[in-house]
Structure formats: structure tokens, C-alpha cells
Amino acid sequence: MKLLYVLIILTINYLLVKGYGESDKDDYPNHFERESHNLINLVRMFPQQYVYSYMKGWENLGVMFSQYKATFPVYYDNSVNRIARYHSYDMGANNYFGHGDRNSQSASDRIQRAVPCSTYNSENIAAGKSTGIDTNNQLICDDPQFGNYCTPDGSGHDGHRKNIMNPDLKLMGVGYWYASNSAYKYYWTQDFTGCTSNLPTNPIYSGYHTFYNSNNPLFVLSYYSNSLSTPAMYIVFVSGSVENVVPMRRTYGNDKFAVYTYSPSTHTPCGKYFFATTTENHKTYRYPETGYLQIAKDLDSCKSWSY
């Protein structure tokens, strides 16, 4: 009954999301979940560049991404987000670590209930890391001893990396939960699905910030379109009625397949911002499509999205 209740609430709240990139009224996705998704897209699109730029301190990096090649980004899905967070909550609240939940549901069962259009699903779980980027790196490295010595592609111990780089997966949701009385404290679930029905049409697949080896945020955005070229990308900081438009740097890629970044020397905690671009056919896209992202650093300072 508990799972059925969660799924009913999941469906109701999903309908309250008005535009792609928005959080619902219960803060799905939250700061850590956005950070994880956004950086998953970066590693999918530019795996080698990601490894040597964002995995400082991890060892044996050269054995990764010989078999798993660059692929397209994935959209975020609020329904999958809810299923993923529920599983992270279940692991933390009941002090276990595994794909099967306390209701005897498998990962595939849970994901298919959330997104019935797909029977092709996969799940990553992790524990012990407190941020999205650290957890992503733990999963990418896939050290079977839970250390920082990365395992080679095709070794049989690289299943998390294989899921992350799977080109047949189109949607994902990330679930984060903190349980102070549990063994690992921090619990993470990444659920992926190959569903292609009713996908968003925004070529900005994700955009957010991370605090990587710095007290200031690094803003990262993933853009992909098979047909729409864009010459430039902007981040817009909002304070009251004032908008400060700042061009982003195309760090990797081209007009149709790119990651953009912006690294400021200072920032306003909880400051509002959004991303925008105008394609060569003069169509403007915004992310999030409604409201504003906020420069959160944790779950206590402010929410990741606001009107």
C-alpha cells in the first residue's frame, strides 16, 4: 500500500510541473539531484574531458572510456525523480543498501511503474558521498573496493559507468536522501529509462551549478539538437527587476552538440538565474522554461528553483 500511495502522489505532483527544468511544489528535483543530473550529461557528452577536469584525486583514469564513447545527453523526469528518491529514502530509513526495496519491488518494477512506456530501464545506487559530483565520480570510477582506483571498461566491475554511458537511455531521475542514524548517512539512486514518449523539446537538456574545488559556483549547461544550431549561450542573473546577461564559454563541442560553462569570481548565495539562447532560426529557448534556478549549496540555504 505504501508504494501505491507514493505512486499516486507522484502522478498528481508531476502534473503540477508547468515547464521543463522546473521543480514541483515538494522540491523535486532538489539541489543535489540537479547537480548529479547536470554532470551526468557532461560526462555522457564529453567523457574524456570530464575525467581529466573533474576527477582530480581519482586514480587509474586512463582505463576508462575506451569502450564507452560519447553519447547524447538525457532529459530529466520528475516522475522518475520521485521513484529514485523514494528508494534512497527506503535504503536510509531501513538501513540497507541494495536495488530491491522493502516492498519486494525490483528497480525495473519501480521505474516501469513511474514511466510505463518503457521496459528498458537501469539503476545505479551509491552511498557515503555528500554531493552530486562526488557521487557521480564514485559511480564512474566503479572501484569494486569502494576506493578511488578506477576499474577498466569491460572489466565486469564497470556496470555503473556502463549505465551512465548507455546511448539507449533517454530519461533519468536522481534521488538523494540523508539518514543520520544509518550506516552510510548519504544515499543515492540514479534511475534511467529508454522511454521516448512525450520527451521535452528543449535543446537545453540541463543546466545548473556545482561547487568543485572552489568557494564559487561553476555553471555548466548541456545543449544538443539534431537540427538547431545556436551561436551563443547566456546565463542571466536576476535581482529584482534587474537582469545581468553574461555570455557563457563554449568549453566543448560545436553549434549543435556542446557544453557551456561560466566561472565567476564571486557570487550571491541563493541568487536567481536562468539560461537562454536564440538559435539560428530565431527561436529562443530558456532553461528552466519557467521560474529561476537559485545558487544553492545545500538543502538548507535555499531551494534549487523558485518562481
Automatic annotation (TrEMBL):
Keyword set, alphabetical order: Signal
SCP domain ranges (all copies): 40-192
Residues forming coiled coils: none
InterPro entries: CAP_dom (IPR014044), CAP_sf (IPR035940)
Any single Pfam family the record assigns to this protein: CAP
Gene3D superfamilies (alphabetical): CAP
Annotated TM spans: none
Superkingdom of origin organism: Eukaryota
Leader sequence residues: 1-19
Full protein name: SCP domain-containing protein
Upper classification of the organism: Eukaryota, Amoebozoa, Evosea, Eumycetozoa, Dictyostelia
